[in-house]
Amino acid sequence: MNEYFPSVLVGHRPDQYRMSFTAGAHSARHVRRIVRSYLRDWDLTELADAVELGVTELLANVVRHVPDRRCTLLLLRQAGGGGVRVEVADGSPRLPVLAGEVPDDDAEGGRGLVLLDAVVGKWGVAPGPGGGKTVWFECEDAAGQPGGASPAPEAGDAR
What DSSP letter does each residue of 104-159 carry, written as one string? Predict the structure, then answer.
């Protein structure tokens, strides 16, 4: 059975991509290709490295910490076209925790959110459907679009 078969694809909109699936060991690789394709279509290829790393880390957390591994990914082109927001929602109430310091070199985990925090504009966690959560992040293009300076943190914002 293919571990990456999307169970729900919601109607097409030119400014977003959404799918629900059961994440597996190779899901991040497939989702990175999809993300890269959308960023190319939206003329946001300069964000590809940060967005792909962010998606990889969030999906790794689903695989590692969500018992049924089901999640919904939303890739949303921000108004004005200069940035992107990524959301990964799952049914687990377990919240991600940003480690206070970088783990030891031989530690097997604990780096994902540290990396995410280093490469994205901002990220956070919000209550999700059915008692779960939505972990999200935003990246803007080099010109700081849209709006220039980063807005004030939102409720549930990790930064």
Answer: PTT-SSS-HHHHHHHHSSEEEEEE-GGG-EEEEEEEE-TT-TTTSSPPPPPTTB--
Give the pLDDT confidence of 94-140 residue by residue, as tens digits: 988 776 655 555 545 556 788 898 999 999 999 987 899 999 999 99
Give CB contacts under 8 A, 24+ apart, made by 144-147.
Answer: 144/82, 145/80, 145/81, 145/82, 145/83, 146/78, 146/79, 146/80, 146/81, 146/82, 146/83, 147/80
Mean pLDDT of 25-47: 95
- What's the Cα-to-Cα distance from 153 to each of 6, 123, 130, 149, rounded to whole Å? 32, 9, 25, 12
For the stretch 137-151, pLDDT in tens is: 999 986 654 433 333
Share the mean pLDDT of the chain: 81
C-alpha span between 9 and 153 (Å, rounded): 31
Are 50 and 119 contacting, i.e. CB atoms less than 8 angstroms apart? yes
